[in-house]
Amino acid sequence: MKDYFVEFKVFLENEKKVSKNTLESYLRDISQFAQYAAENSLDDLAKADGQFINDYIKYLKVDGRSDSTISRITSALRCYYKFLLAMRITDTNPVKNVKFKKNTKKLPEILTNKEIELLLKQPSGTDFKSVRDKAMLELLYATGIKVSELIKLTVHDINLQIGILHLKGSKNERIIPMYPAAVKAVSNYYYHVRDTIVVDSSQETLFTNMNGQPLTRQGFWKIVKAYAKKANIKKDITPHTLRHSFAAHLLENGAQLKDIQEMLGHADISSTQVYAQIIRNRYAQAYKKYHPMAK
Q: If you average pLDDT over every residue of the chain, what do you get?
């Protein structure tokens, strides 16, 4: 992969003289873009065109990145391709006419109980990949953790004997219970499959790709999309949809917002209150649809 990463770093430090935070952010953004490009058969970032950039921004939206994050990534890409132009590595700037439109604030998509059941049933085989995928999907819905947290889990973060997940963040710790089916799925993977996939005994990552290397967000995103299509779920779901569904279903069944906030790791309860709005909207729609005097 030709990413001109070292040269861009020197350019940011010596020519642009950006702050340390901006330097780290831009380099991380370009590194993640290069990873996306490699996974989509682009071997030279200088060859990216406007359509490829637009597809990447669309991917970021589907992946659940915030508007502010996508705006920063777009700025990083714009700076990067201006650098490639200045160095005469490319003669076009694919980001020049790309305009990122911020979405109006909308409620997150959630799956119905039936749709969740259909999705979790899709990896039903006994092959290694199916067993691994079943464990990941069950764990994601059982705990509501982020995909970034899922792919960073180690074998020390989960206690299958008592059925809990222990997450250690930089600011807090969360202990999240798992329902029996999730414990069973993860146990099946851990005791019967993981050691066959992960041949390196020093590798502590719980879930890896089929080559025994850590999973990427993009890799897991593709897994979820494939199973959603197989389940014939028409909603445009992302890995975040399972997190949203976890929270909404708990609330719908009587859980307290404060408890859901703790499990999701939200610093501010206002982030959790969006799920109450989802439930209220659902009830309002049901009322309008089925009450004879509301039609």
A: 85
